[in-house]
């Protein structure tokens, strides 16, 4: 199918704007001590979906990957809000969706609608693909926090409860979570451990 030049231009406009995800920084740090970008997080989330896919034969893998790719796309315009700060920053979901809608505005209508629909599905955890993407998103975040060279005051304690509602019902995800929680517990500041004992 040949695309007209207008459609090509609209798509390139979107892709140029989406490039911002390469420079939007998250609260975690890489193993080399650099702040992690949203694009880097999204890449490993997709990799996790790939390597765990065989455990979920009933999941539409192509749909899962599409959801993973777009799940933080709205952050290209609004930035990332770390999970501990989400309760004090208002409605993260509404802000992120507004950013997404603005970002995809130049796309042809059918593509624009597919991306927004996938994002809404993810946000509502409305399908098995969306639920798995949400769980893997939380696990990837925790893994990066455990692997990164984070500042001395980094709040590892928060991760011990972060996103559990998405990982606890599935036995495999719960096992992965338990393993990551052991890594997290090793990194919790001893004074934090004492205050929660």
Written description of the protein model:
- By secondary structure, the chain is mostly helical.
- It has a single domain (5-196), classed as Hypothetical protein af1432 (Orthogonal Bundle), CATH 1.10.3210.10.
- It contains ten helices and two strands, in the order H-E-E-H-H-H-H-H-H-H-H-H.
- It has helices spanning 5-18, 38-52, 61-70, 75-78, 92-103, 109-124, 128-147, 164-167, 171-187, 190-196, and strands spanning 25-29, 35-37.
- Helix 6 (109-124) crosses helix 7 (128-147).
- It starts with a helix and ends with a helix.
- Residues 193-197 have low confidence and may be disordered.
Beta fraction: under 5%
Overall mean pLDDT: 91
Class derived from helix and strand content:
mainly alpha
Give start-end ranges of low-pLDDT stretches: 193-197
Main pleated sheet? 2 strands, antiparallel
Ends: how far apart?
63 Å
Fraction of residues in helix:
55-70%
Bulk shape: globular
Supply database-style keywords.
197 residues; mainly alpha; Hypothetical protein af1432; 10 helices; 2 strands; 4% strand; disordered C terminus
Task: Note the topology.
Layout: H1 5-18, E1 25-29, E2 35-37, H2 38-52, H3 61-70, H4 75-78, H5 92-103, H6 109-124, H7 128-147, H8 164-167, H9 171-187, H10 190-196
Antiparallel strand pairs: 1-2
Helix pairs in contact: 2-3, 2-7, 3-6, 3-7, 5-6, 6-7, 7-9
């Amino acid at each position: 199918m040949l695309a007209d030049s207008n459609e090509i231009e609209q798509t390139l406009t979107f892709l140029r704007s989406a490039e911002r995800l390469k420079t939007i920084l998250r609260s975690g740090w890489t193993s080399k001590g650099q702040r992690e970008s949203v694009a880097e997080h999204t890449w490993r989330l997709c990799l996790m979906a790939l390597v765990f896919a065989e455990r979920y034969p009933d999941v539409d893998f192509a749909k899962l990957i599409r959801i993973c790719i777009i799940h933080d796309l709205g952050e290209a315009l609004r930035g990332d809000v770390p999970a501990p700060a989400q309760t004090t920053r208002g409605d993260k979901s509404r802000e992120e969706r507004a950013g997404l809608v603005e970002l995809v505005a130049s796309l042809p209508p059918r593509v624009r609608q597919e991306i927004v629909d996938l994002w809404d599905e993810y946000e509502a955890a409305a399908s098995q693909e969306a639920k798995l993407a949400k769980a893997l998103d939380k696990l990837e975040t925790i893994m990066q926090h455990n692997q990164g060279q984070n500042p001395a005051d980094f709040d590892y304690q928060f991760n011990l409860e972060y996103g559990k509602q998405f990982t606890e019902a599935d036995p495999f995800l719960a096992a992965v979570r338990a393993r990551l929680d052991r890594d997290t517990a090793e990194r919790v500041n001893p004074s934090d451990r004492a205050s929660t004992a």
